[in-house]
Specification:
13 helices, alpha/beta, Spore Coat Polysaccharide Biosynthesis Protein SpsA, Chain A, 2 domains
């Protein structure tokens, strides 16, 4: 039976991979190789170095060789992570782009499947694939959002699903039409570590979206990653969220039903986030962070839960329950070990290709 999928050859447009970087030359090498080794050939990789002043430039130039597929720019000073993303976003001249952190990487079929989705639904402004999180040894830590078939959402239709995480929403697995940047502007750097989500949510609130099956991007969890350095929950989280939603609410081009959805006071589960932060910090003996997370839970509208969490943290610290902390760490390791084995058995083959980039 002939393959009924549309051919990517019918859409020869170039895709730009924007990769900001700072002092991660070996991880950067993997990120660049994952973009260059795509089954879709029309890819340009643009690296924006935040004044690393190490071997980063050498790594990039070695991969660039004599071709024109890799471009490199180094800032004279470190302008910050999201401002660097914005700088790269401003330089995009191709019809499509994606945003890739230097410690993450793409699956080899990502752009091909995204472009097939654009062919199937030409008015879509974003093509979204699922992402996974791995550790530094490529052990799978999270399962991808389940997408069994290609699905199209009219303007604003994907917004609530992305908020609720039932639709892929991590920009590592999204290809955008450059018109998205032209119409909604750059990434809002005033919403803290949630700036990436703010950009995606705004685009989903305003434009048609197509979701394709498969994993498109892989995020690496480590102590120096953005997710590993987030501050404890608090009123600032609510302020960041409200700022993101306000930007969407003020966009007159967003459909009315999305505005109605915004009026329902959508927000993330701050109580769950705070409890997770507190338990993790107690396990590693960081009582100050745990107390800050407890206060944050209270400040975010959960006074009873926050107070109880704070009291538990104080008792934990007062009694120096090192054996309990050790037991918590042991239980967490056992649970994570079982979960990691299960996830690796099911999804490990999807990231196995990345080991070749480490040679």
């Amino acid at each position: 039976m002939p393959d009924s999928r549309p051919s990517v050859n019918s859409v020869p447009e170039m895709v730009t991979t924007v990769i900001p970087t700072y002092r991660r030359p070996q991880l950067l090498r993997r990120a660049i190789l994952s973009a260059l080794n795509q089954s879709y050939p029309c890819v340009r990789v643009c690296v924006y170095d935040n004044a690393s002043w190490d071997e980063t430039e050498q790594v990039v130039m070695t991969l660039a060789g004599e071709g024109a597929r890799v471009r490199y720019h180094r800032h004279p000073v470190n302008i910050g992570s999201y401002p660097n993303f914005n700088y790269g976003l401003q330089q995009v001249k191709t019809p499509f782009f994606s945003l890739l952190s230097d410690d993450d990487f793409l699956t080899p079929w990502f752009y091909e499947r995204a472009m097939e989705a654009f062919i199937a639904y030409p008015d879509a402004m974003m093509a979204c694939l699922a992402t996974m999180v791995v550790d530094t040894k490529l052990n799978v830590l999270t399962r991808p959002v389940g997408v069994s078939e290609m699905r199209y959402y009219a303007a604003g239709g994907a917004f609530k699903g992305m908020i609720e995480a039932t639709i892929p929403r991590t920009w590592t697995g999204i290809v955008f039409r450059t018109e998205v940047r032209d119409r909604i502007g750059l990434i809002d750097t005033n919403v803290g570590p949630q700036a990436d989500g703010g950009f995606v949510y705004h685009a989903a609130a305003r434009f048609p979206v197509v979701v394709a099956p498969g994993v498109g991007g892989v995020l690496m969890a480590h102590d120096a990653s953005t997710s590993g350095t987030v501050p404890p929950i608090g009123k600032n989280y609510i302020a960041w969220w409200d700022a993101m939603m306000k930007r969407i609410a003020e966009d007159k081009a967003v459909p009315d039903f999305v505005h109605t959805c915004l009026n329902q006071r959508l927000h993330q589960d701050y109580r769950r986030i705070g409890f997770v932060q507190a338990v993790k910090s107690l396990a590693r003996g960081d009582y100050a962070y745990a107390l800050a997370a407890a206060r944050g839970v209270k400040d975010c509208g959960y006074p009873v839960a926050g107070t109880l969490l704070g009291l538990f943290t104080l008792v934990f610290e007062k009694l120096r329950l090192r054996k309990v902390a050790a037991a918590i760490r042991a239980v967490r390791r056992r649970i994570h070990g079982y979960r990691r084995r299960s996830l690796n058995e099911k999804y490990g083959h999807l990231v196995a290709f990345a080991r070749q980039y480490e040679k």
